[in-house]
Design a protein that fits this description.
alpha/beta, Rossmann fold, 2 domains, five-stranded parallel beta sheet, three-stranded antiparallel beta sheet, 8 strands, about 50% helix, rod-shaped
């Protein structure tokens, strides 16, 4: 039944007969209904139970429908402030309609009430309420995904920063300076240097296509392969061939002449 999925419709009217007729009409259509005989009673009940929709009379003593709705719309609890509301008015004039809408009503129905029109407008508001909740849930999931992504990128940034050399090598007759500033938290660029067996240094630079975590993973792999290459090879050309061969073996048929999207620059320098 509708009430199990959509919640209660709260009928607010100071006239007992009107409330009885409305509740009977809505119950026959499958809705679960509650009732309040005044604006103040409705205020308390809304804060206890938070109905799915308000059906409230514009003209009530003490706290009328417009005043009640203005207070509800200003409530600090968004679940209360956003409850759909249909105003019931005995006046069909433009002034009455404007008053309902200015108070925050989502729709209004003029008395005497046409049951088919009332049901159609209730269905519309409940459908919109359901869609808003779906959208809010999707937004919440998207926000949670964004926070997780930011945490992952922050962790990846720390990892990549740890791979970048922080102190240049001391070479007699040479001044070595570096600067590393990725466009976003992590990037596809990396560099380093290696002391070779004959006391020379190999300076290398790698650039992976794109930015973000995928490019950063390539740079991490690159540094590992370069350091691994120096343990088995003793010339820059042999190291480059070994790194290229390792990339081809790791990525298989996806690579042709060299790793896709990779540009390499290496240079060896004799120490004086």
């Amino acid at each position: 039944m509708r009430q199990s999925s959509e919640g209660e419709i709260l009928v607010i009217d100071d006239d007992a007969l009107t409330r009885k007729i409305l509740i009977r009409t809505l119950a026959a259509a499958g809705y679960q209904c509650g009732e309040s005989e005044s604006g103040r009673a409705a205020w308390e009940r809304v804060h206890r139970e938070q109905p799915a929709l308000l059906l409230l009379d514009l003209e009530m003593p003490d706290l009328n429908g417009a005043e009640l709705l203005k207070r509800l719309r200003a409530d600090q609890n968004p679940d209360i402030a956003q409850i759909p509301a249909i105003m019931l008015t005995g006046h069909g004039g433009e002034e009455s309609e404007v008053l309902c809408l200015e108070a925050g009503a989502d729709d209004f129905v003029t008395k005497p009430i046409n049951a088919a029109v009332l049901r159609a407008r209730i269905e519309t508001q409940l459908r919109l309420r359901f869609m808003r909740r779906q959208l809010q849930q999707q937004n919440d999931e998207l926000e949670a995904w964004r926070r997780n992504l930011e945490r992952d990128l922050a962790a990846a940034r720390l990892t990549q920063q740890s791979l970048i050399p922080h102190k240049p090598p001391k070479l007699s007759g040479w001044d070595v300076a570096t600067c590393f500033r990725p466009v976003i938290q992590v990037g596809g660029d990396i560099y380093g240097w290696l002391r070779m067996r004959d006391d020379r240094f190999l300076f290398w630079i790698a650039d992976a296509t794109g930015h973000g975590a995928s490019a950063a993973l390539i740079t991490t792999l690159t540094k590992l392969l370069f350091h691994h290459g120096t343990t088995e090879r003793d010339t820059p050309a042999a190291i480059m061939q070994g790194v290229n061969s390792d990339f081809r073996s790791i990525f298989g048929a996806r690579l042709k002449q060299r790793p896709a999207g990779q540009a390499w620059l290496a240079r060896d320098t004799h120490r004086s």
